[in-house]
Automatic annotation (TrEMBL):
Belongs to the DegT/DnrJ/EryC1 family. Pfam families: DegT_DnrJ_EryC1 (PF01041). Keywords: Aminotransferase, Pyridoxal phosphate, Transferase. This is DegT/DnrJ/EryC1/StrS family aminotransferase. It comes from the Bacteria. Gene3D superfamilies: Aspartate Aminotransferase, domain 1, Type I PLP-dependent aspartate aminotransferase-like (Major domain). One of its GO terms (molecular function) is transaminase activity. It comes from Hymenobacter guriensis.
Length: 368
């Protein structure tokens, strides 16, 4: 039995009719950019996030970039980011010309370690960008406490954790501005690129709406140097359909993770995901760790099981960030995670038998 790393088949089947109807509705409306669908999705996603506002944008990266622009962060400012983040969080800081200050994650969760934040703060620090990695909410109470004590902005990167909570509160509702992505493989995925920001700050919303649309409130009046970072009507209409099913898909992901947890218990050479008692995990990815990662990945591939590595090279060792002068060994936890992590197959609609088969195949692997 071949088991792909991920599949859209069951998700698509569940929303096929409603999605095609929504696409037809947009097609027939003859209005394709910034209209009723975007407005409605923004209201629905704000409600889902327990925030007052949502601004739809063209991608997760655009959302991160616009957040830092709206907060006025720029050259000379320092921004704390996880050393093991996906590169997008780092890129947003680069785009505004601010200084990236990597902070190591907690080795157990892989999320930003709040205890290490204070030591990284200088008089130039302006913001903290927690990333809810793989779908587990960061320890937001601890992060917010540090931010308040030092008068810093908080910008969550919630691209992987739609629907997760920290102490019962949804991710995407803690920061001053919160960015998310609806890239197709995310837990809430469009049929193309899309993203959003959530916030309770009406003044920031006003700026974001201007920034995403050519710096223009009124057509052909350019107040600031804005961008074209708008969410399409078509993607908004599709996201409205899928948002209704997100809770169901999240429960499926959590069930699959529970089956993996049970099936992989007591393997001495394998670490399973650890979730904080105060957080929930929506399992965008189910990531195990082992020093035998590459051999295990080959073993699974030889048995027809797809896996992936999120992410093989931490940002500080990427060629794009060579100019920052970081070296191998400088962020050992991020480097260790990159060397040992392996994402197992997980998608809504995957069956218990498929999870069992993956676990069985892992148990047959003999680490040497
Ligand atoms: C996917 C992702 C992004 C970027 O989103 P895009 O929509 O692809 O631009 C940013 N941060 C994290 C953690 C992501 O997983």
């Amino acid at each position: 039995m071949r088991i792909p790393f991920q599949s859209f088949t069951a998700q698509n089947a569940r929303v096929r009719e409603a999605t095609l109807a929504a696409m037809t509705r947009v097609f027939d409306s003859e209005w394709y950019v910034l209209g009723e669908e975007v407005r409605a999705f923004e209201a629905e996603y704000a409600a889902f996030s327990h925030t007052a506002h949502c601004v739809g944008v063209s991608s997760g990266l655009a959302a991160l970039h616009l957040a830092l622009l709206a907060l006025g962060i720029g050259p000379g400012d320092e921004v704390l980011v996880p050393s093991n983040a996906y590169v997008a969080t780092w890129l947003a800081v680069s785009y505004v010309g601010a200084t990236i200050v990597p902070v190591e994650p907690d080795a157990a969760t892989g999320n930003l370690n709040p205890a290490l934040l204070a030591a990284a703060i200088t008089p130039r620090t302006r913001a903290i960008m927690p990333v809810h990695l793989y779908g587990q909410a960061c320890d937001m109470a601890a992060i917010i406490q540090v931010a308040r004590a030092h008068n810093l902005w908080v910008v969550e990167d919630n691209a992987q954790a739609h629907g997760a909570t920290s102490q019962g509160q949804p991710t995407g509702s803690f920061g001053h501005l919160n960015a998310t992505s609806f890239y197709p493989t995310k837990n809430l995925g469009a049929l193309g690129d899309a993203g959003a920001l959530t916030t309770n700050d009406a003044a920031l919303v006003e700026q974001l709406r201007v920034l995403r649309n050519y710096g223009s409130r009124q057509k052909y009046q350019n107040e600031v140097i804005g961008q074209n970072a708008r969410l399409d009507e078509l993607q908004a209409a599709i996201l409205r359909v899928k948002l209704v099913h997100l809770h169901f898909w999240t429960q499926q992901r959590q069930q699959l993770a529970a089956w993996y947890d049970a099936g992989l218990a007591d393997i001495a050479w394998l670490h399973r995901p650890y979730c904080l008692p105060s957080s929930t995990h929506v399992y965008h990815l189910y990531v195990v760790r082992t020093s035998h990662r590459d051999a295990l990945q080959q073993h699974l591939a030889a048995h027809g099981i797809g896996t992936a590595v999120h992410y093989p090279v931490p940002p500080h060792l990427q060629p794009a960030y060579q100019h920052l002068g970081f070296s191998q060994g400088q962020f050992p936890i991020a480097e260790q995670l990159a060397a040992t992590c392996l994402s197992l197959p997980l998608w809504p609609g995957m069956t218990e038998a498929q999870v069992t088969e993956v676990c069985q195949t892992i148990r047959e692997f003999k680490p040497s």
